[in-house]
Structure formats: structure tokens, C-alpha cells
Amino acid sequence: MASKAKSTDRAATRSAARLAAVQALYQMDMTGIDLNDVVAEFQMHRLGQEVEGERYHAAEAEFFHDLVDGVVREQRRLDPMLDQQLAEGWRLNRVDSILRALLRSAAFELYIRDDVPARVVINEYVDIAHAFFSGEEPKVVNGVLDRLARKVRTEELPPAAIGEG
User: Fold this and answer.
1) Is the pLDDT of residue 139 over 70?
2) Among 124, 125, 137, which Cα is nearest to 96's?
3) DSSP-derived secondary structure letter, 93
């Protein structure tokens, strides 16, 4: 039973790290704050802390840092891949800032972090989309990430059949 609790705890801390990474990437996009400054701010003042009466869940700090740093480092490779998955006529730079941060973080995990199963990545980021949006955005996230996963994780997810996705 202890190992199940430990894996549940790890899943929860990784979920919190993903949410924090999306928030940090959004903050960087909106304010121009430096990568090191935003990571330090989140690690010192947000992860596992209480902010404005809201208790932030404990997050796996190393995973959080890897996501934020990785998105910044790989953004020039990630953005064109995401552009290709968006509906015709749409580009990532036209997408809502929080949605853009979410898609970039998820794309980094799908593309680089092959230690995390593709379906887990997709489900986690669809859940995060539900935390921020009540409209069609979670469906968009699901579709974009599913198409991307089928391209970069072909060993896990076969390409969609003609007419699918």
C-alpha cells in the first residue's frame, strides 16, 4: 500500500508542477520576466505556499524547473510543431496566452520527456485547460496534443486513420 500512496503523491506533485509551469510560462510571456527570476519566485513563494488565501499544492520542484527551462530552451522547435497541429489559418502566436503556455509545456513533455506516457501528458494538460477555460479550449488542447503525440510518439500512439482527428 505504501508504494501506491507514494506513486499517487508523485502524480499529485507532478500535476502541481505542470500547473505551476503553465502559470510561470504565462507570467514570462505577459511580463517579460527572466527565466531564472520566475523559477526562483515560484520556488520561493508559490510552490507549496499560500498566496492570496489560496494554498498551492506541493510541486516537484525539479520537474517544474525542467518544464519551464525546457520550453524556453526548445521553443524555436516546439512552436512550428504546434503551428502544424492548429486549425488551418491559426498560428500559435494568435492563441490565448495561457493556452499558448499550456500547449508549449505539453509539447515539451511529448517531444522531450519520453519517460512520461503520451496519454498521461494529454490527460494532464486537458485537466489544466479545464481549470482555466469553460469553453471549447479543453477540446482544442486534446485535439492538438493527440495529433502531436501521434507524430512524435509513434511507438505509443499510431498515426490517426484517414478521417480521424
Assistant:
1) yes
2) 137
3) G
Query: Band of the pLDDT at 10, cuts 50, 70, 90?
Result: confident
Q: Read off the pLDDT of residues 74-96 as tens digits, 9 standing for 90 and up.
A: 999 999 999 999 887 788 888 88
For 143, other C-beta atoms within 10 Å of its C-beta total 17
CB-based contacts of 58: which residues, under 8 Å, 6+ apart? 12, 13, 16, 47, 48
Residue 38 backbone phi and psi in degrees, to 5: -70, -40
Architecture in CATH for domain 2-152 = Orthogonal Bundle (1.10)
How many angstroms separate the CA atoms of 17 and 49, rounded?
A: 13
Short-list 57, 53, 75, 66, CA closest to 9: 57
- Percent helix, strand, coil in the chain, to 5, is 70, 0, 25
Burial class (CB within 10 angstroms; exposed 0-12, middle 13-18, buried 19+) of 163: exposed
Judged against a pLDDT cut of 50, whether residue 140 lies above it is answered with yes
Whether 58 and 16 have beta carbons less than 8 Å apart is answered as yes
The C-alpha torsion from 60 through 26 and 136 to 106, rounded to 10°, is -40
